């Protein structure tokens, strides 16, 4: 049985599972990435990628979004009340910000390209050296090749920055 694909349109739907429709994602990739890999995918695969990208956004940024949910029964983090975007422009309560949709499209493409977004990590990496001093407490651990096993998506982070609390230089409104 195919999974249901429900796009959040700004109503605060209790059943929505994507911030972006397949058609809007197609348009985004046509205008931005121009990658044939997105176009070549089946509709069901695109929808699955958009659902996973939306889930990632909600889990990764939970507690960091400006404003509050429009209603308690909505399935996704957006739409929101009392939220301000770039240049201190108010985001209406029934709007899914374009930057959020763009971030969703970018992450969905990563999924289509084989990225799992959040890999399970057992250890941070192999330890190269480790030293400890008890007074006044000093600890140093060096990892082979660095510790950074957490994936970062700079474009996505940049797109979302105005929508996240504490991410602007002015006093945050949300």
Note the beta-strand portion.
5-15%
Average residue-wise pLDDT:
86
Q: Give the overall shape, derived from the CA principal axes.
A: globular
Q: What proportion of the residues is helical, as a percent range? A: 25-40%
Low-confidence stretches: 168-174
β-strand number: 6
Q: What would you call the structural class?
A: alpha+beta
Order of helices and strands: HHHEEEEHEEH
Strand order within the widest beta sheet:
1-2
Q: What is the end-to-end distance? A: 40 Å
Topology:
Layout: H1 22-31, H2 36-39, H3 43-60, E1 68-69, E2 80-81, E3 83-84, E4 90-91, H4 98-112, E5 127-133, E6 138-143, H5 154-160
Overview of the structural elements:
The strands form 3 sheets. The chain has a two-stranded antiparallel ribbon with strand order 1-2. Strand 5 and strand 6 form a beta hairpin. Helix 3 (43-60) crosses helix 4 (98-112) and helix 4 runs antiparallel to helix 5 (154-160). It starts with 21 loop residues before the first helix and ends in a 14-residue tail after the last helix. Helices cover 31% and strands 12% of the residues. The protein folds into 2 domains: 1-115 and 153-174, no CATH class; 122-150, no CATH class. The chain is globular and about 60 Å long. The longest helix has 18 residues, at 43-60. The protein has 5 helices and 6 strands. With 174 residues, it is of the alpha+beta class.
